[in-house]
Design brief:
Shape: elongated
Oligomer: single chain
Radius of gyration: 18 Å
Distance between the termini: 40 Å
Structural class: mainly alpha
């Protein structure tokens, strides 16, 4: 059974529960999709170790792309009213 911490309500904060599958609200899903499409798609792997190696290589390539994670994960509704 999952444990859910209960946030204390405040007058200036509204908690909105997210649906379980909602990639437009979950930046990590978009990053994973980019990795799959760019580095991992249309490949056959010899074994589990080959899959892990390919994922590690894809992650390293992604990290080498300066600003790519920010561009994938950025949402206009997150940064409204904040200075960049």
């Amino acid at each position: 059974m999952a444990h859910h911490a209960q946030a204390q309500p405040t007058s200036n904060l509204t908690l909105v529960p997210l649906p379980p599958a909602c990639p437009e609200l979950n930046a990590a899903e978009n990053i994973w999709q980019y990795l799959r499409q760019t580095y991992l798609a249309n490949r056959v792997f010899a074994d589990y170790t080959a899959i892990l190696d390919a994922c590690q290589d894809a992650w390293r390539k992604l990290l080498a792309e300066t600003g790519r994670i920010t561009s994938i994960a950025q949402r206009d509704w997150i940064i409204i009213g904040q200075s960049l």
